[in-house]
Amino acid sequence: MMTTVKRMHNLGAGALARLLACVLLAFVGLGAGLGAGLGTAHAATIVIVNQNAAGVGFNDPTPAEPVGGNPGVTLGEQRLYAFQYAADIWASHLVSDVPIRIGAAFLPLDCNATGAVLGAAGANQVVAEFAGAPIRGPWYPSALASKLAGVDFAGPTAPHIIARFNSRLGLFPDCVPGLTFYLGLDRNAGDGIDLVTTLLHEIAHGLGFQTFTDDATGEQLQGRPSVWDFYLLDNVRERVWAQMSDAERAASATAWRRLSWNGASVTAAAPAVLDPASRLTISGVAGGNAARNYFVGEANFGPSIDSAPVSGQLMPVMDQTNGAGLACTPLSPTNALAVRGNVALVDRGSCDFTVKARNVQTAGAIGMILADNVAGEVADLPGDAPDIAIPSARITRADGVALKAVLQNRSRTRSGVVARLASDPDRLAGTDARGRMLLYTPGVLAPGSSVSHFTTEARPNLLMEPAINDDLPHVVSPPRDLTLTLLRDIGW
């Protein structure tokens, strides 16, 4: 009996942030067959099974100049070379007697002029109740199950992982024209999407960086938990998903900062990988009931808050008839006077985050706080602007409302509300109060993305956040990344 499950997750959206929607397809079933037992474990081998027809995808004969260390001379050859390069990075870190097969293809996937399905990958099968499982009972992805048992559960030829990527991206006028996969190996993607980084992310899902439990309903696949669910911890109840009801699992999947990874390996490695968390502290004679510490999302541009803490009067920009301050154009003399030498409070909307930061910086602000315009949790501020020299941070819409309330009584240059952006000496970026890594749990469920990624609060950015960030190296292990460490927790 075979069961097929389709899961989806977003790597990000919006061409301005250079992120595209990504779909994760996990075809899940019972073991399709048993191979012979194998001998002593050794470094893994990952084999790319080309599932494209002649003349397309990996077999596309379109001439291409070698780029960034990729020696292919056709588009198809370069795609395949980049895919094998990413697979070899993973293979160098894994141990398995069973060769891991990835059934891969470049195919026309959904896209339009402003967005596209970037790719899809996931486990082809799951297996439970096998000899060698560290935890007896839950579903394991077949690549991991085969490694642990020394038996190829997929049979002699079937893939353990399925991967699909968009062959039309940027190559047709109706598919985000100008935004293409960068096929080089040197991380010099510029305005393109680094294919190797994307592949490293998706292969990790296929290796087991995902749950097979429904993140919307909390329902387990055929009534059986995933091995992942033994490490997903509701940090308020201090109970793992495997111990919870369907309703409890569904609730924690949309509870911001409530779901942690309870694996000992990740918790031990986190201090060597993560930067100190940043926070906004509001104080001062006029701070009133808004005086407290706030969670913030830090900007990807400008100096880090840890390296360039700032403290000053908080002053709002007001350039809209409704009282909002977008800072999308150079500040008026009145607004420039208000923020000069102070920390500027602006609103999200209408232009890039870097434009806002540049305009308040030009006006003399020493830092920028951006209040979100939609309800939800904090997120970072994507963008690239080498000329930005002030730190910037993002707060929730609710926190923005609270700050604006205490800023009502102010002079043209002073508010009496002091804002300090600095590192938090007691917390690592992306961790809970006990130092455990947080998972991605936005208040509005992102099917397949929620729960099966690290939080976006991590600093530096990690490979398995729900977005492919521009600063990611081709690295999966400490001291730069925690992806391999998490896979070690589940048995790799």
Q: Can you walk me through this structure?
A:
The structure is a single chain. With 492 residues, this protein is α/β, with parallel strands linked by helices. It has a domain at 275-428: Glucose Oxidase, domain 1. The protein is built from nine helices and 19 strands. The protein has helices at 75-91, 142-149, 195-207, 246-252, 264-273, 333-339, 353-362, 397-406, 483-490, and strands spanning 46-50, 100-107, 119-123, 126-127, 140-141, 161-166, 181-182, 193-194, 232-234, 239-240, 259-261, 276-283, 293-295, 297-298, 310-316, 343-347, 367-371, 392-395, 418-428. The strands form five sheets. It has an eight-stranded mixed beta sheet, sandwiched between helices. Strand 16, helix 7 and strand 17 (367-371) form a beta-alpha-beta unit. Helix 1 packs across helix 3 (195-207) and helix 5 (264-273) runs antiparallel to helix 9 (483-490). The model is unreliable at 1-40 (pLDDT under 50).
- What percent of residues adopt helix (DSSP H or I)? 10-25%
By secondary-structure content and strand pairing, the structural class works out as alpha/beta
Q: What is the strand tally?
A: 19
CATH architecture of the domain at 275-428: 3-Layer(bba) Sandwich
> Which class of the domain at 275-428 in CATH terms?
Alpha Beta
Q: Which fold name is given in CATH as the topology of the domain at 275-428?
A: Glucose Oxidase, domain 1
Strand neighbour order, sheet with most strands: 13-12-19-15-16-17-18-14
| Largest sheet features | 8 strands, mixed
Q: Which radius of gyration do the C-alpha atoms yield?
A: 24 Å
Flag low-confidence runs: 1-40
Annotation field: number of helices = 9
